[in-house]
Amino acid sequence: MTDVQTTRYDDQKPGTSGLRKTVSVFKQPHYLENFVQAIFDCVPELKGGLLILGGDGRYHNDVAIQTILRIAAANGVAKVMVGKDGILSTPAVSNMIRQYGANGGFVLSASHNPGGPDGDFGIKYNVSNGGPAATSLTDAVFERTKVMEHYQIADGHVDLSTLGHSNLGAMAVSVFDPVTDYADLMETLFDFETIRRFLTSDLSLIFDAMHAVTGPYAQEIFVRRLGVNSDALMNATPLPDFGGGHPDPNPVYAKALFDRMFGDDAPDFGAASDGDGDRNIVLGRGVYVSPSDSLAVITANAHLAPAYRDGIKGVARSMPTSRASDVVAAAMGIESFETPTGWKYFGNLLDAGRITVCGEESAGTSSDHVREKDGLWAILMWLNILAVRRLSVQDILTDHWATYGRHYYSRHDYESVAADKAEDVMARLQGQLTTLPGTTLRKETISAADSFTYHDPIDGSVTENQGLRVMFESGSRFVMRLSGTGTAGATLRLYLEAYEPKDGDHHADLSKRLEPIAAIAEDLTNLRQTVGRDGPSVVS
Ligand code: VG1
Ligand code: CO
Question: Has the keyword Metal-binding been applied to this entry (predicted)?
Answer without folding.
Answer: yes
